[in-house]
Design goal:
- This protein has about 500 residues and is of the alpha/beta class.
- The chain is about 35% helix and about 10% strand.
- A 6-stranded parallel sheet has the order 2-1-3-4-8-7, sandwiched between helices. Strands 10-9-11 form a 3-stranded parallel sheet, with helices on both faces.
- It is globular.
């Protein structure tokens, strides 16, 4: 979707040759998206929340410019990203339909979840493949990181193992706030992506608070990024996420670093949260001086002034864009209001995979009828096998016949598994296909989610039932993914 289709071309200024990022960024489009996001926040806060038409409202004011800049650089057809509940400006920059964006928080039918999920957790399969897709978000803080490690590993697998040159230069991006860096999902993904030198960009929006909890409670010294400087295989880029000169340069540098294939990058941008955590949060925990300081760092007036000074967009042209954005949002809200409520009759649709063609991003857009039906007749001939031998022979067969099968977990590599179920498979198929992982069940299953969304067939192992509990959130999100995205996504895997 070209979000500035409604804007008259002759009102949008001319050249941006005076700034270093002129060839990379369309400042007219970026300005419009920023104004569009602000208009959405305003109409929700002033009309839709008081009318009880929206119940989960998360403003991105202050975070928005940096997110939009990032989204505009994710142009590779095999790029993928995960966001979180404050990522709406980023989602708009990827091309998600405006009416769908405003209809989802109102729990209306259609759109990216058909009213099945809270509107702020988006997804975007981008079946046109004209840029990045957005993994299905979930409400769990930190759950967004390890699936991108899996996607980044699948980029390497497609490129090096399957010899698919179309994946060269693709990256995975995980977005999160500073408080999410305290979660096990973040640390697991950091270990996966640095030990394997994966094309993974960690995009951290640091506003200094996890709802009301300051950084000093999250990490010693109150600066998580400073504490990560000793991490190997990790490029750290750190700076201001509100400055119209510095911010695009930092974003560009980070994306180019990861695209080059040299390894992961953590980009931390300091941004103000110009609102409460949600609409209901009054921010009484912040000193008044801090709130005033944050308001002074608003990236919107900074960008408006800078573009005017550079002759890119006059104040009058900016106001035209603002009027266009407000009109577009009002029109979208009116359209969303007239959408029907989700049908109760379809409530159980897509709990499981259904027969017939499915339209899914990744390697999953297939007609399920192409697979042969299993033989219902027992076949007792042949030698009797114990369970472990049968499992090993099955894994061996699948690895041999399907180049997209990958087997991984703790101790499954050279040791061959604590029960010898994978004995000899690493030696036979190589460590890109049968490999050990760090001790994190969250990471094992989260990584599998990203791989499955990339069209691989992951077979992650969790050694014992008890150890599945740290992976419970990832298992749950995977199990309901098809349902809560209205059949737009699925991540099939075999968890052993």
């Amino acid at each position: 979707m070209d979000v500035i289709d409604d804007v008259p071309v002759d009102t949008l200024g001319s050249s941006s040759e005076e700034i270093d990022t002129a060839d990379l960024f369309d400042w007219q489009r970026i300005s419009y998206l920023l104004l569009l996001s602000r208009a959405m926040d305003t109409i929700e806060e002033q009309e839709l929340v008081p009318a009880k038409l929206v119940f989960n409202q998360f403003s991105a004011r202050g975070h928005d410019l940096a997110q939009i800049l990032l989204g505009c650089l994710l142009t590779h057809p095999q790029d993928a990203a995960t966001g979180y509940y404050r990522s709406r400006p980023f989602v708009l920059s990827l091309g998600l339909d405006i009416e769908d964006v405003v209809a989802a928080p109102m729990a209306k039918s259609g759109g990216y979840s058909d009213g099945r999920d809270i509107g702020v957790v988006c997804n975007y399969p981008n079946l046109k493949r004209d840029g990045a897709m957005l993994f299905p978000m979930c409400g769990g803080v930190g759950a967004q990181y390890t699936p991108i490690s899996g996607w980044a590993q699948s980029i390497v697998y497609h490129r090096d193992q399957l010899k698919d040159a179309a994946y060269k230069g693709a990256i995975g991006v995980s977005m999160g706030g500073d408080a999410s860096m305290s979660t096990s999902g973040f640390w697991s993904a950091l270990n996966i992506s640095t030990t394997n030198n994966l094309p993974h960009l960690f995009f951290i929006e640091d506003n200094g608070y996890g709802i009301s909890v300051p950084q000093s409670v999250q990490t010693p010294g109150g600066d998580q990024v400073a504490n990560l400087k000793a991490y190997k295989n990790l490029k750290i880029i750190d700076g201001d996420g509100t400055d119209p000169i510095e911010t695009p340069q930092l974003v560009q540098q980070a994306v180019e670093h990861v695209r080059s294939g040299v390894g992961p990058c953590l980009l931390r941008l300091n941004v103000p949260r110009l609102c409460g955590h949600t609409f209901q949060d009054t921010q009484t925990y912040k000193p008044e001086a801090l709130i005033a300081e944050e308001q002074a760092r608003d990236p919107l007036p900074k960008l408006r002034s800078y573009l005017a000074e550079q002759g890119i967009l006059s104040y009058q042209q900016w106001q035209t864009l603002n009027d266009q954005a407000e009109t577009a949002v009002k029109r979208a809200v009116e359209g969303a209001r007239f959408r029907p409520e989700p049908s109760i009759d379809s409530l159980q649709k897509y709990i499981f995979a259904e027969q017939g063609p499915v339209q899914l991003r990744g390697g999953l857009a297939v007609d399920q009828h192409q697979f042969p039906a299993s033989n219902a007749e027992p076949m007792p001939q042949g030698s009797r096998l114990n369970m472990l031998t049968a499992i090993r022979k099955t894994l061996d067969y699948e690895l041999q016949t399907n180049p997209k099968v990958v087997v991984f977990g703790e101790d499954v590599g050279p040791k061959g598994g604590v029960h010898a179920a994978t004995l000899g498979l690493t030696e036979k198929y190589g460590d890109l296909r049968v490999f050990d992982t760090s001790l994190s069940e969250e990471g094992i299953i989260g990584r599998a989610v990203g791989m499955a969304l990339a069209g691989l067939m992951p077979v992650p192992e969790i050694q014992f039932r008890k150890y599945a509990e740290p992976a419970a959130e990832q298992l749950s999100d995977t199990g309901i993914m098809r349902w809560r995205t209205n059949n737009q996504f699925a991540a099939p895997m075999v968890v052993r």
